[in-house]
Design brief:
Blueprint: E1 5-7, H1 8-11, H2 14-17, E2 20-25, E3 31-35, E4 46-51, E5 59-72, E6 75-78, E7 81-84, E8 88-92, E9 97-102, E10 106-112, E11 115-123, E12 129-138, E13 144-155, E14 171-173, E15 176-179, E16 188-192, E17 197-209, H3 211-215, E18 221-233, E19 239-245, H4 254-264, H5 271-281, E20 283-286, E21 289-292, E22 295-296, H6 303-313, H7 325-340, H8 364-379, H9 382-402, E23 407-409, E24 415-417, E25 430-431, E26 434-435, E27 442-443, H10 444-463, H11 467-473, H12 476-488, E28 489-490, E29 495-496, E30 499-501, E31 504-506, H13 515-518, H14 526-539, E32 541-542, E33 545-547, H15 564-571, E34 576-577, H16 580-592, H17 597-605, E35 614-615, E36 622-623, E37 631-632, E38 636-637, H18 638-656
Parallel strand pairs: 2-35
Antiparallel strand pairs: 1-9, 2-3, 3-4, 4-5, 5-6, 5-13, 7-8, 9-10, 10-11, 11-12, 12-19, 13-18, 14-15, 15-16, 16-19, 17-18, 20-21, 22-38, 23-24, 25-26, 27-30, 28-29, 30-31, 32-33, 33-34, 36-37
Helix pairs in contact: 5-18, 6-7, 6-8, 6-18, 7-8, 8-9, 8-10, 9-10, 10-11, 10-12, 14-16, 16-18, 17-18
Length: 657
């Protein structure tokens, strides 16, 4: 396939182009994201979206968009595009686009008359700065470039309105202006690499419409402030760089900085190259912390997602040469260390931090064990792992054994988790104050993870002579194993029940049972693992991952669409999740070895076509349960990318075995 390239016919077709979005991050929490024709369709789109610690730590859209015009013979051709109510697009600059490619960085070419202009967009790594380089490739007469910035200065989850409180004044800085619409926000420095005339024409552009927000049932209209425009001559062959930054930039060094940043960009001309680039974008280093963004453009850090995604987006993303192995291994450990510091009462914050943290994820601490297992298996540093994380692991197990918040071990050795009006597992959608899939009681995956965690901790404790822990826990694995299958096994369906509560087994065919087949320590025998995987393959497997509920179930929802309640009802009731595929493939490989490799390869290769769809160069959060399994949710999801990368690495390891 042609990687991350689009031609004129595709780009002028808005029905096609507006469903393809790009993302670039600075690896420190900021990003730029828009469609491939630079028409914003979400409130989360923007050319500079930054976390602002001084306000609330959340991301804020500062520079929403930037319209460029080429002027010849006093006639202006505006290359910008915005949507307004009534399906109106103004201006319609996409009709001048002749080419788009995303390697090494998003690059768009425009042609009109004898003018041929190239635009390259770049997020500077580890700085809150976006650079846009314009190069005049061809022109037959004197040409001017006009740039008009659209400012938002609002939380990424909100929308702005024209108001009298905005500070519409600006101050002059070298080759540009500085603007701060509201108190509490940082100053945005808008500059050019070349001296330009700035014409102050402060005005609000009202009712810009975001069609994706309208589809999702949200307010979809916004007023954006334009302070004026820059205008300057540009010669054939000349490059001019636009900068928007939270710090004043040095115009003389913009060209060198742009070239240096482009040189750092990984190749995106192969499927794995795209996935590895996407994986890097989820890692955020701010201050002493290294964290994982669960998904772009609206998710922040989630505890559960962090541990599930981490091995894939770091260890499985190491290049074939191993040149980046040291860096990736360190990143994996840095994330584990950051999260370890926030452990409280045996639980990790699922969302939020500090006083705003929500400790409502019963499975996150158990996925912590799994992530450490993956790290230890990859590095072979068993002693280092026990020294760094042994106390944390033991404290989690003790907390669950005695009871922590909403979960506790029963006499049979199994974990019972329950909290009114809360969904404690990864199937956590809430509609009208009620969990869509409450799953209170003994959950099939929680107890598989619990068994795996105890066995792993005991393995390390025995090796490093922790006799006290070993004596206290050595009998528990057998107790759990003796209780697990009799409790969960459904003879009629030949698979594990999803959960067991006071009313008995919930026998819905769901994917949560696959973890009993993929984890290093399984509480069920091989024959049962085979039956589980056969049932999941028969009823849940699609080309894009596993459905969350079998289609023949009356509660099945085949389309993930509509307003938030409608989407949340479908979220775990049939919607396909790619991240589950990693554990399905691992379970199959453990049973069938090399014989399963051809089918496993086919499964991961189904995502190659997605590199040019929806969130280009990445994998979406979810897909419809019904064919053709259209992508939806976040355009780039950490555990989707991570588990596909991990599946690829598992396949390679089995091929070498």
């Amino acid at each position: 396939m042609s990687y991350l390239k689009f031609n004129k016919e595709e780009l002028v077709n808005l029905e096609y182009a507006l469903h393809r979005e790009m993302l670039c991050t600075n690896r420190a929490g900021s990003y730029l994201s828009t469609t491939i024709v630079c028409c914003n369709t979400r409130k989360y789109h923007g050319l500079l979206v930054c976390p602002i610690d001084e306000l609330d730590g959340e991301r804020h859209v500062l520079l929403s968009s930037l319209d460029e015009s080429i002027i010849q013979h006093d006639k202006a051709f505006n290359f910008g595009i915005h949507r307004y109510p009534g399906n109106v697009y103004e201006p319609r600059g996409h009709k001048y686009i002749v080419d788009f490619k995303y390697d090494p960085t998003p690059t768009i070419e425009y042609k009109v008359g004898g003018v041929h202009l190239r635009k390259e967009l770049l997020m500077v790594h580890n700085e809150d700065q976006v650079l846009v380089r314009y190069t005049l490739l061809d022109a037959h007469s004197s040409t001017k470039l006009r740039l008009r910035p659209y400012l938002a200065f609002r939380n990424a989850h909100a929308l702005s309105r024209a108001n009298i409180h905005a500070d519409v004044k600006h101050r002059v800085v070298q080759n540009g202006i500085a603007s701060k619409l509201y108190l509490g926000f940082p100053t945005l420095h808008i500059q050019l690499s070349k001296q330009a005339e700035f014409v102050a024409v402060p005005d609000w552009y009202n009712n810009v419409e975001y069609i994706e927000e309208a589809k999702r049932g949200y307010d979809a209209h916004e007023d954006l402030f334009v302070p004026g425009y820059f205008e300057l001559p540009i010669r054939k062959g000349e490059s001019i760089i636009f900068s928007a930054s939270l710090k004043e930039a040095a115009p003389a060094g913009m060209g060198r900085k742009f070239d240096a940043e482009v040189a750092k960009r990984p190749e995106k001309i192969s499927f794995k190259g795209c996935l590895k680039n996407a994986a890097d974008q989820f890692i955020v280093r701010r201050g002493k912390n290294t964290e994982v963004v669960a998904g772009y453009p609206w998710f922040g850090r989630w505890g559960r997602d962090t541990f599930i995604a981490l091995p894939g987006i770091t260890l499985a993303a190491i290049s074939s040469t191993g040149s980046d192995a040291k860096e990736k291994i360190k990143t994996c450990k840095d994330v584990l260390d950051t999260m370890s510091s926030e452990l409280k009462g045996g639980l990790f914050p699922n969302i939020g931090k500090g006083e705003n943290a929500a400790f409502n994820s019963v499975d996150a601490p158990l996925w912590y064990f799994w992530a450490i297992q993956q790290y230890e298996a990859f590095t072979g540093d068993r002693e280092g792992v026990w020294k760094a994380y042994g106390k944390k692991m033991k404290s989690i197990l003790e907390a669950f054994r005695s009871g922590t918040g909403n979960a506790a071990m029963h006499e049979n050795g199994l974990i019972w988790a329950e909290e009114p009006f809360r969904a404690l597992t990864w199937m956590d959608a809430i509609v009208n104050g009620q969990p869509v899939t409450p799953r209170s009681g003994y959950q099939v995956e929680i107890n598989a993870l619990w068994y795996n965690a105890i066995c792993y901790a005991l393995e390390l404790a025995k090796e490093f002579k922790d006799t006290k822990f070993t004596a206290a826990w050595k009998d528990l694995p057998e107790r759990i194993r003796s209780a697990y299958e009799p409790l969960f096994w459904c003879k009629e369906r030949r698979h594990l029940s999803d959960y067991v509560d006071g009313k008995g087994q919930n026998v819905f065919t769901r994917p949560n049972q696959i973890f009993a087949t993929s984890l290093k320590y399984s509480p069920i025998p091989e024959s049962s693992r085979r039956d589980v995987l056969d049932a999941v393959e028969r009823e849940l497997l699609t080309a894009k991952g596993l459905r969350t509920l079998a289609p023949k179930n009356p509660l099945y929802e085949g389309r993930y669409e509509g307003n938030q309640p409608a989407r949340d009802k479908a979220y775990h009731q049939g919607t396909v999740w790619p991240w589950l595929l990693g554990h399905f493939i691992e379970g199959k490989l453990k049973l069938h070895g090399k014989a399963f490799i051809p089918k496993a390869k086919w499964m991961v290769e189904q995502f190659e076509e997605d590199m040019n769809v929806y969130g280009i160069c990445s994998i979406a959060e979810v897909y419809d349960g019904d064919p053709p399994h259209n992508p939806n949710g976040c355009i780039s999801q950490a555990w989707s990318v991570g588990e596909v990368l991990r599946a690829i690495r598992l396949i390679e390891e089995y091929e070498r075995a």
